Amino acid sequence: MGRALLQASLGEGRVLTHLTELTPEELAALPPLPTSLSGSAFLQQHPAGHGDAATTVRPEAEYAVAACAAHPVLEHDRVCEFEALLRGRAARAPAPPPLASPPQFPTAPLRRPPSEQQRLRLGELMRGSHESYSRVGLGSAATDRIVELVAAAPPSARLYGAKITGGGSGGTVCVLGEASDEAQAAIDAVLDEYASETGRRPYVVSGSSAGAVAFGHVELRCSP
Hints:
With 224 residues, the chain is mainly α. It contains 8 helices and 4 strands; from the N terminus they run H-H-E-H-E-H-H-H-E-E-H-H. 18% of the residues are buried. The strands form 2 sheets. A two-stranded antiparallel sheet has the order 1-2. It has 2 domains: 1-99 and 108-112, no CATH class; 139-202, no CATH class. The protein is globular and about 60 Å long. The longest helix has 22 residues, at 65-86. The chain has helices at 2-10, 24-29, 39-45, 65-86, 116-135, 141-152, 181-198, 212-215, and strands at residues 37-38, 62-63, 159-164, 173-177. One of its GO terms (cellular component) is cytosol. Residues 121-194 form the GHMP kinase C-terminal domain. One of its GO terms (biological process) is galactose metabolic process.
């Protein structure tokens, strides 16, 4: 829905296939989208629909158009900056071109561990991502509380940020912290506090295997 409205503002000179093709600066320069819009009002303006075969606009529903359209634009920008910081680059990574073929993932190794300033910025980006999920209705009280507890930890805890992962609406919270005894103690304190408040102790997953690097991969091809 947001893409269709933005496309109308862009005109025929530029075809917007994906919202992530817009930069945050370009989005801010376009006429603001409505905070809320009913499906019936949208269909009156765009009788052909929103161009998405996977979903249907319900006339009786109210849609948070501005927040939902802004999320992929800003999240894409956050992800590009996050990746650049992890690889030791201070500058924000440029947005990749629209996907005309399967994505090619970077394989270059990390140049150096992120600096303290970069870690703090990584935490800010994670917080922005988590808050954006909540604005589009994908938050949950449980994961919000875990993120709040991580954010409330003192600087000496060496915890830099936290965010919901996956599709949102509950699930797994990713926490960025230092590989140190201080950070582990802070995580344990977060778990203890959450368990005290809710009666449920979260399950912690840490570390990673070599994945496909060690075990190979399976390639799936879809027949036309």
